[in-house]
Amino acid sequence: MEELHGKNGILIHHWDTDGMCSAALLLRELEDKATITTFTPTIGNYYLNDDDIADIKKHVVDFVIVADMALPKDSIDFLKTLGDVYIFDHHLQDKYDINLHQNPVIDGESPSRYPSASWVLGEYLQKNPDILFVLGALGDREKKLLDNEYAMKTVNKVMKTLDTDFDTLLEVIGLLDSNYKLGNKKEVERTPWFLMNVQGPDRILNKRDLEENIVELESAIECEVNGERTEIKPCVLYREMESPYNIISTVTRKIAWANEDKIAFVVNEHFMEGSIQIYIRGPMEDSQSMIEKAKEKGYSAGGKSDVVGMVIPEEDKKFIQKILEMLA
Ligand SMILES: [Mn+2]
C-alpha cells in the first residue's frame, strides 16, 4: 500500500470485533506512514446516513479505506467523490469499480477459507497469523468456527503461541463487542488504536473500562429479562424494552430459553433513533414469510427457522401488529 504513504485518509470500519481488528491491522501497516482518522458509521446502520456523511466531509482526505462493511453503492459513490477508495471485506456484495476491492469471497473463494475481514487483510498484507487475525474470525463466527477445520488449524497454532484457549478468546470478544452494544461510537473508533499494539489477550482482559461495560450490560439484560411482559396469544410473550443498549438478541434468547413452548417477541425503540428493533425467537411455523413481508417493505430483516430479527421505521409501528397476527 505504498501509494498511500504521505497521504491523508479516513478508515471506515465495522463496529464489531472483526471490524476493529481489521482496522488495527491497517493502522499497524500505515499509522507511521500516512495520516489516518478512524470512523464507524452510526451503530446499527449498514450504510452512511446524513450525519455520517456530514462527519466524514469534515476531513479533507486523499483516500478512504472501508474494512469489514458491505456498504451500498450510493455510499461508495459518495466516498469516491472524496478520493481513492479501497475495500477489504468478506461479505457477499457487488464488485465495485474502485481502486482496490479486496474481497476473495466475491471473487469465488469459499467463505470458510476467509472467515473474517481480518483474515482477508492479514493475507493481503502478508502478515503471519496473530491475535488480530484470530479475534476477527472468532468474533464473526463464535463457536461455529470450531467446525471450520481450515481456519482452526491457524487458530490453534496462534492460541498455542499465545498460551491461551478458545474460551478465553470468546471472553475477549465479549469485552471488545461491549462498546457497540452500549452504543459507544467514539470508543469503537478509538479501539483500533489500542488493538494495534496488542500482542496477546491479557491487555484486553485487563482493560478496566471494558470490564465495567460488561457489568453494565449484564445488569441491563437482567432487568429486561425479568421486566414486565404481556401474553398476547397463548403462544406469544411480548416484551417492550426500555434499554438504550443493543442487547435485544440476548434478551430475546434468554426469554425464549426460559419459556421453551412460547415465542418470545421483543421490541426496542430506544437503541436506534427513528427505528424499532424487533426480535422473535421460538417455535414458529413460518419465519420465512415474516422476513419476506419486512423485505417487501424495504426493511432490513433476516433470520433462521426459529429466529427473526428486523429493523423497521418508527412511523410504521403498525407493522408490529401485522407480524404478531402471522404467529399462530
Ligand atoms: Mn466481519
Brief descriptors of the model:
13 helices; 6-stranded mixed sheet; 5-stranded parallel sheet; alpha/beta; single chain; binds manganese (II) ion; 328 residues; inorganic pyrophosphatase (n-terminal core); 17% strand; globular; Diaminopimelate Epimerase, Chain A, domain 1
Fold topology:
Layout: E1 8-13, H1 17-30, E2 35-39, H2 50-57, E3 63-67, H3 73-80, E4 84-88, E5 100-102, H4 117-124, H5 131-141, H6 149-162, H7 166-181, H8 185-195, H9 202-205, H10 208-226, E6 230-233, E7 236-240, H11 248-258, E8 263-268, E9 275-281, H12 287-296, E10 300-303, E11 307-313, H13 318-325
Parallel strand pairs: 1-2, 1-3, 3-4, 4-5, 7-8
Antiparallel strand pairs: 6-7, 8-9, 9-11, 10-11
Helix pairs in contact: 1-4, 1-5, 1-8, 4-5, 7-10, 10-11
Manganese (II) ion binds at residues 18, 68, 90, 116-117, 140.
Description:
- By secondary structure, this protein is of the alpha/beta class.
- The chain folds into two domains: about 1-205, inorganic pyrophosphatase (n-terminal core) (Alpha-Beta Complex), CATH 3.90.1640; about 220-325, Diaminopimelate Epimerase, Chain A, domain 1 (Roll), CATH 3.10.310.40.
- It contains 13 helices and eleven strands.
- Helix 1 crosses helix 8 (about 185-195), helix 4 (about 115-125) runs antiparallel to helix 5 (about 130-140) and helix 7 packs across helix 10 (about 210-225).
- The model has no long low-confidence stretch (mean pLDDT about 95).
- Manganese (II) ion (MN) binds near residues 68, 116 and 140.
